Amino acid sequence: MEAKQSPQSGELHVLLGTEQTFPPPEHFAAQANANDPQIYEQAAADPEGWWSGWADKLEWIEPYEQVLDWSEPPFARWFGGGRLNASANCLDRHVAAGNGDRVAILWEAEDADDPGSGSERDGGRRSVTYSELLEMTQRVANALKSLGIGQGDVVGIYLPMLPETVAAMLACARIGAIHNVVFGGFSAESVKERMQFSDAKALVTADATLRRGEPTPMKKAVDAVAGEIATLEHIVVVDRCGTNPPMSDGRDHFWHDLLDRADPDCPPEPMDSEDPLYILYTSGSTGKPKGILHTTAGYLTGVTATHKLVFDLKPETDVYWCGADVGWVTGHSYIVYGPLANGATSVMYEGAPNYPAEDRWWQIIERYGVTIFYTAPTAIRACMKWGREHPDAHDLSSLRLLGSVGEPINPRAWLWYREVIGGGRCPIVDTWWQTETGAIMITPLPGLTTTKPGSATIPFPGIEATILDSAGKEIERGAGTLVLTRPWPSMARTLYREHERFIETYWQGYGSDVYLVGDAARRDEDGYFWIVGRIDDVINVAGHRLSTMEVESTLVSNPGVAEAAVIGIPDEMTGQAIVAFVIPEGGDGDDMEKELRDYVAEKIGKLARPKRIVVCDDLPKTRSGKIMRRILRDISVGEDLGDVTTLRDPEVVKDVERRFAEQD
Ligand code: PRX
Description:
Elements: H1 9-16, H2 26-31, H3 38-45, H4 47-55, E1 66-72, E2 75-80, E3 83-84, H5 86-99, E4 103-108, E5 125-129, H6 130-146, E6 154-158, H7 163-175, E7 178-181, H8 188-198, E8 202-206, E9 208-211, E10 214-217, H9 219-226, E11 234-238, E12 252-254, H10 255-261, E13 271-272, E14 276-282, E15 290-295, H11 297-310, E16 319-322, H12 329-341, E17 345-349, H13 360-368, E18 372-375, H14 377-386, H15 389-392, E19 401-405, H16 411-421, E20 428-431, E21 465-468, E22 478-484, E23 494-495, H17 499-506, E24 515-523, E25 529-534, E26 538-541, E27 544-547, H18 548-556, E28 561-571, E29 575-584, H19 592-603, E30 612-615, H20 629-637, H21 651-662
Parallel strand pairs: 4-17, 6-7, 6-8, 7-14, 8-11, 11-12, 16-17, 16-18, 18-19, 19-20, 29-30
Antiparallel strand pairs: 1-2, 3-13, 4-5, 9-10, 14-15, 15-23, 21-22, 22-24, 24-25, 26-27, 28-29
Helix pairs in contact: 3-4, 4-11, 5-6, 5-7, 5-12, 6-7, 6-10, 8-9, 11-12, 14-16, 20-21
């Protein structure tokens, strides 16, 4: 596969625009978990020994016999022969070690001081200890069993940010069911598709989710599509907002009814190291989302190691907060499995950063004395826009470490984050990774790595990354295609029920043992990596990964649309934004813009709502009829169009340019 947009190094310099470096603060380096620079060399010399050292910190029911079997790449088998249970590692062993009273989750409702309607609210704040979370998880596990769910069954989870969501995931892990979480901001249509692709037997959802004070129905939305999910037998409903959703006899059950009846004791199922833990659908180059499959032991090893070292976690004293949603991989790895496996105390916040006011996050940090905070560049840029008076009004002195994830962070946002939120004293870890990698791959280690604003720096110990040109030649310094050249424990094992696609997408570009990431990156003179963006048709809007093809196929499913082409353009706030060019089906397409934007939001989710819809008579196409998206991109960003002679009808470009300018 060729890097379609290999950036030139000159361009990048302009993009990055800063030469500053930040060595680890001395006070930090001395006490950091990773304060021995030799771990990099040790891990490189004996990667299997490095990872098995982390695996050995887990609790095993039966020990593993072999660290890694990589004899037939890309089939990886980590910790073969071992048996363990992920939920027991996240809960039981902490309770057994005498830490049952330690708080696992400090839950904060959207508007905790004025919780509005809500049956689960408990005054808007809940503090759930490890013992309590274990009990809830065991009850849910037994409830699922009572519905006939067992090992290997797929359970959909479509819930807001609640402790119940965590318990539902861990309950699946406890009985060997495979969870398939769908982000609560996705539409019911997206839920349907993901449940159909995975043959889900049960779905756990809520009556509604609170968004800016208003309950938005979830169960009712699910009801409209549930009949089309042939394998779905049960829907379990968490009563979050007390909205009395319609319930179908036999199929639908309230969470609290099931839990009241359930036995509080459910022994963890001994799972094989390579048994599936979960599926998580993410966007790929084609319209159909990819069901990334993670297995048990390797995944747990990867998230435990990275969570501990990258965030310098000290479970006895830290208050950790990852601001992502559980519905994304960041939530899976760094709200649920990593922090709980490490016995951390985490904040979990239900709502938006600016509801009811723009200081909501800073209020939470002050209230709980948060020490480690992990969020996305888009959120940081939004906070910058709202103004520093909001963080300045709060005592943020408890913070000692800041993290960033999901998209490249521009140096200006990095510096603001460091100065305004971190008071100039907190190291920043810009963590690069993906749903497929399961855990953080390229990142500074606080206490060890000198950081540069905008660079994710260097691979985590045991990870080997490099940059290749289109012929597969390594680029020591400069830009090209990012690849990972050594297997790692938390790597995706397959795409659920699409193994061929898994191999084609990730393991055929440069050989069956080289993982093709799908990002372009540059390596500088210090060996630091600078992620530039995707090289495929995936775009990243506000840290959310979307497929342009998925948006296109949604647009053409609207009877008013004959053809559509979707591109991502740079956006100051959201990193990238969606622009869609559409040809109307009959009619002149007047007033279609809003309708189509709403249509996409309804079909996929609000996160996919195009920023602009441009209605045109025709689209620039090659003689063979292929839409030239490059030209649409150039028009959208005001670039010189370059060579248009390969177009079937070069006149079309003028019309599209005119429409783009007129409809601005
Ligand atoms: O393009 C990279 C970008 O997000 C993609 C992965 O998206 P997803 O699977 O949704 O996972 C997001 C959270 C891990 C990557 O291919 N990306 C992620 N983190 C960074 C990033 N780009 C630059 N810097 C990062 N720190």
